Amino acid sequence: MKIKEVISKGIWTENPVFRLMLGICPTLATSTSVQNAIGMGIAVIFVLTFSNLLISLIRSIVPDKIRIPIFISIIATFVTIVDLIMAAYVPDLHKSLGLFIPLIVVNCIILGRAEAFAYKNTILFSVIDGIAMGIGFTVALSLIATFREILGNGTWLGNPLFGSSFEPALLMILPSGAFFTIAFIIAFLNDLDQRRKRHDKPAVQ
Amino acid sequence: MRFVVILGLVTALSAGALALVNQITDPVIQTRGREALAAAVTLVLPGSEGGLILTHDQNGETGYFAGFRNPDTTDLIGYAFRSSSQGYSSTIQTLVGVDSSGSILAIHVLSQQETPGLGTRCQEIRRGETEPWWQAQFKGKRISEVAVDKDNGIIQSITGATITSRAITDGIRKQVHGLLPRWNTEAKGQASRPNRSGS
Q1: Domain total for chain A?
Q2: B103 - beta bridge partners?
Q3: Whether B125 contacts chain A with CB within 8 A
Q4: Strand partners, B84
């Protein structure tokens, strides 16, 4: 396994949101603005990287039978650290993300990567996997948030894009807007995949 | 038994790490909270920078500020208090400033997690303006008038967010009615102590 492969898996071929369909709940809730999306993404990158690092480090001494409670304790510790640091140094962002920071503990991506990757791989690969998966999550979240913030609020990263006559489509900011956006993006990605497959086939024959 | 020891060790280590982080961040969080509250209080009690008294009620859960124009705390501007009410999807915390005659000086929504685009408009600042338009309409209103237009009041509710508007206005009215008797006795107490600012 190569480092490049781990990176491309995290960001593209196994993108947690668009491919693995993990962590959809925080995706719906925190993609209302690009600023929230990036803040949430950075928090997830931090937690994912450090939990992967620690779990990979202690994997030889963790008994198989109690690995899940140990993973969850480690993840919860890092999430609480992020929560406290954000409350202290970026209070506005912390306020707007609210409950979704503590809820990273139960985010399927984190435990999923601990169980499926960090528990079976070396420290280096686990850290890279954590960073790559975290970036994949952040990119997906920011992409969804870009569509939602522009269409639903007429702004991008808080900057107004249109004149005052622009009537934002409220629907996009509401939870249903997130479903629409995710559906369109996934449909587009699947279409891209199928085209590539069709293109590849004649070459194989 | 081995499992218990290992799991105990892991949780003990994590508790230690958290205690350390908490020790670093806690003072910062406390200061930020105090700063935010102080800024909000001076927003709803303009001119009270020099003379604020925090009073706790009997159970110590909620308190209110009495704001004075001078540091000697004799020239009363009014009171600021926190009002919290259940909105559509969150508990809305509002800070309210009331003058001694029972008119609202200003309100400030401290925190809310209402529907984006609907209830969150209670904090919306229109382009070219400096304060949220919805909260600005409370200024100078008598407490008895504070109700949304659908309930025969004079506060214009946010389109599509009547529940949010009603929660804030009704919360404020109820809270003032609870506090008014206390302020009245306090004011009388001050009046009967003529020498307080005499010298």
Answers
A1: 1
A2: B142
A3: no
A4: B93
Number of H helices, E strands in chain B: 3, 5
Residue numbers of the domain that contains A137 = 3-204
CA neighbours closer than 13 Å in the CB half-sphere of residue B94: 32
φ/ψ of residue B139, rounded to 5: -60, 130
Residue pair A30/A102 in contact (Cβ under 8 Å)? The answer is no
Kindly give the residue spans of alpha helices, DSSP state H, lying in B110-150: 133-136
Question: How many other C-beta atoms lie within 10 A of the C-beta of residue B130?
Answer: 7
A127 alpha-carbon distance from chain centroid: 16
Domain ranges of chain B: 41-196
Residue A155 sits at the chain B interface (C-beta within 8 Å): no
Alpha-carbon distance A32 to A39, whole Å? 12
- Asked if B153 and B169 touch (Cβ cutoff 8 Å), the reply is yes
Which of B29, B37, B92, B127 to mutate to probe the A interface, most A CBs <10 Å? Answer: B29
> CA-CA distance, B23 to B76, in Å (whole number)?
39
The Cα B10–Cα B3 span in angstroms is 11
Q: How confident is the model at residue B189 (pLDDT cuts 50, 70, 90)?
A: low
Distance, in Å, from the CA atom of A105 to the CA atom of B39, rounded to the nearest integer, reads 33
CB B81 within 8 A of CB B65: yes
For B116, the closest of A32, A80, A84 (CB atoms) is: A32
Each residue of B63-101: pLDDT tens digit? 788 888 877 777 888 888 888 899 998 899 999 999 888
Residue pair A117/A24 in contact by the 8 Å Cβ criterion: no
Residue A111: pLDDT above 50? yes
Nearest CA to B81 out of B131, B36, B37 is that of B37
CA atoms B94, B27, A73, A14: torsion sign? positive
Give the SS3 label for residue B109.
strand
